[in-house]
């Protein structure tokens, strides 16, 4: 891969049903995620997705692109920017930004950004994978 190459874009439609499934799978039933009446009374004015539900999309993208290379040593450094709500469509983009040597290994370093349908970043950062 060359610097500037992009991975295939990953798009996800966020639904309350998907958020509820994530809550069931993880046991995280914080009412801000699953109780619409409660969530309407918060500064968010409605339910929001679990941060790690949205974060996990990067693993799906990297697994599709690199398979076991990702699970055997991928690294992630991202920041949450804004909440994701039911009805949002999230687009995850990754572009090869750098190659670096660390720990005796050569790494591919990708800039990654998760954007909502208004092209606002909801997460951003970097992921690295051994070359």
Description of the structure:
With 131 residues, this protein is of the alpha+beta class. It has a single domain, classed as Thiol Ester Dehydrase, Chain A (Roll), CATH 3.10.129. A 5-stranded antiparallel sheet has the order 1-3-4-5-2. It starts with 9 loop residues before the first strand and ends with a strand. The model has no long low-confidence stretch (mean pLDDT 96).
Characteristic key phrases:
131 residues, Thiol Ester Dehydrase, Chain A, alpha+beta
Proportion in β-strands: 25-35%
* Alpha-beta classification: alpha+beta
CATH architecture: Roll
Count of β-strands:
5
SSE succession: EHHHHHHEEEE
Shape: elongated
- Uncertain stretches: none
- Kindly report the CATH topology: Thiol Ester Dehydrase, Chain A
Q: What is the highest CATH level, the class?
A: Alpha Beta
Assembly level: single chain
Kindly give the count of domains. 1
- CATH homologous group name: Hotdog Thioesterase
User: Mean pLDDT, nearest integer?
Assistant: 96
Rg from Cα: 16 Å
Strand order, sheet with most strands: 1-3-4-5-2
DSSP summary: helix tally: 6
Helix content: 25-40%
């Amino acid at each position: 891969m060359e610097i500037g190459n992009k991975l295939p874009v990953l798009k996800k439609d966020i639904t309350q049903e998907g958020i509820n499934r994530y809550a069931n799978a993880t046991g995280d039933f914080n009412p801000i995620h699953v109780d619409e009446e409660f969530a309407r009374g918060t500064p968010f004015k409605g339910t929001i997705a679990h941060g790690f539900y949205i974060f996990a999309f990067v693993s799906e993208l990297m697994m599709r692109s690199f398979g076991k290379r990702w699970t055997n040593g991928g690294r992630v450094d991202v920041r949450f920017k804004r909440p994701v709500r039911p009805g949002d469509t999230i687009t995850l983009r990754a572009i090869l930004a750098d190659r670096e040597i660390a720990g005796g290994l050569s790494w591919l370093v990708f800039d990654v950004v998760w954007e909502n349908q208004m092209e606002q970043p909801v997460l951003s950062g970097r992921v690295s994978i051994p070359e």
